[in-house]
Design goal:
The chain is an alpha+beta fold. It contains seven helices and nine strands. The relative contact order is 0.11.
């Protein structure tokens, strides 16, 4: 009769049933341990954290993300630089086009307002002895002007007005020159006759055609007589350009007649 031997303790048994009973009674814990061991799932290679491809290392994944971030940043920088270059090129081409075309109109001349010959005479208010308020610009456009700023108590002013009345008025009037005699503001702070009285005394009144008497503002006095001369005159073209000026009309009248 064949015997049966227990692999765990090498004990022999006469029947298969007796062996099985022995193993259940004596070796149940070892059997369960063997079963549990046999059912364990082996770990996958590649580390303790699995990935889609059998456990990609964590540091490799971090470097991959880092590379993507750097590539994206470089792409953004390239885009910005390219946009700037294109904008600069577009602007340069526009400027080149605008400067390369010659002007078809007449050159622009800068207008200079001042009291020197060649300057455009600044406009100012004029208060005529007849009560009318006007301005220098309203006398322009027709003919040349002789604008004579005076103080009514000035002997040289009286002499010049007398010469105009007696000798030069007719010639100037024939040439179409308008004469405006203007009292400097407040007679430069001195007491003298009114401008109307001045005209009556030295020019025979204010009724001659093309010859006006007036007063003006302090601003006009400062503009046209900045050095506070007792008299100053200007010959002004019909377009408002100062042609000639001086501070002693009686001595300069022959030249003034020629310039006007």
């Amino acid at each position: 009769m064949n015997s049966r031997r227990c692999d765990g303790c090498q004990r022999e048994f006469r029947s298969e049933d007796a062996l099985l009973q022995h193993q259940r009674d004596k070796h149940q814990g070892d059997a369960d341990s063997a079963v549990a061991t046999s059912r364990r799932v082996p770990k996958k290679a590649g580390g303790t954290r699995g990935g889609r491809n059998g456990g990609e290392p964590l540091i490799a994944r971090w470097y991959a993300k880092r590379r993507l971030t750097v590539i994206a940043a470089i792409a953004i920088i390239i885009t910005i630089v390219a946009s700037g270059v294109l904008a600069y090129h577009y602007d340069s081409m526009n400027n080149l086009g605008s400067h390369s075309l010659p002007s078809t109109g007449s050159p622009t001349t800068k207008v200079v307002y001042g009291i020197e010959p060649g300057d455009r005479a600044p406009d100012f208010q004029i208060f005529l002895v007849n009560g009318t308020t006007t301005s220098l610009s309203r006398f322009l456009g027709g003919s040349a002007l002789l604008v004579y700023f005076v103080t009514t108590w000035c002997p040289g002013c009286a002499q010049a007005v007398g010469l105009l009345n007696e000798t030069y008025y007719q010639e100037l009037h024939a040439k179409g020159v308008t004469i405006i005699v203007i009292e400097l503001y407040n007679d430069l702070g001195q007491s003298g006759p009114s401008i109307a009285q001045f005209a009556d005394k030295y020019a025979g009144g204010t009724s001659k055609p093309g010859w006006f008497y007036a007063t003006t503002t302090q601003n006009a006095t400062v503009t046209y007589d900045p050095n506070a001369y007792l008299e100053v005159y200007y010959v002004i073209s019909a377009s408002g350009i100062i042609l000639y000026s001086g501070s002693s009309l009686a001595a300069d009248l022959p030249n003034v007649v020629n310039e006007a």
